[in-house]
Structure formats: structure tokens, C-alpha cells
Description:
Elements: E1 2-4, E2 10-20, E3 23-30, E4 34-40, H1 42-65
Antiparallel strand pairs: 1-2, 2-3, 3-4
Amino acid sequence: xxxxxxxxxELMTVRKVELEDGELVIRGKIFGAMPMVAKLTPEEARAGLxxxxxxxxxxxxxxxxxxxxxxx
Length: 72
């Protein structure tokens, strides 16, 4: 999975997401070169869901199954 910036440049590539010792561990690379390991606690995950809001969470299911818009 890749995260892109506003100019469609790669910010981060996620290689693996797994649970370890009660935390969500995300492994990947930042800017295509620097290895990264990010850990997310259950409390921080709940805080992240609050940032999304209920309407955005409900829109995620169709979003996952939709196709990207063509780049201009």
C-alpha cells in the first residue's frame, strides 16, 4: 500500500501490518528509502477513528471497492 502526497509523489510504502504485543505494527519505507516501523496502540487507534467521524467510516466500505479516478 502506498501513501502519496498532493503531487502524487510517494511518501510511504507499507509492506506489512501485523499485531504484536497488543499493538498494531506497520512496517515499510518512507520516501522509498528509509525503513520505518510504526506502532499504534489501541488508544491511539480509537483516537484515529474519532478523527474520521461516523459518516467517513461509513463511506470507507464503498471506497475500498471503487476504482481510482484517472490522473490528469
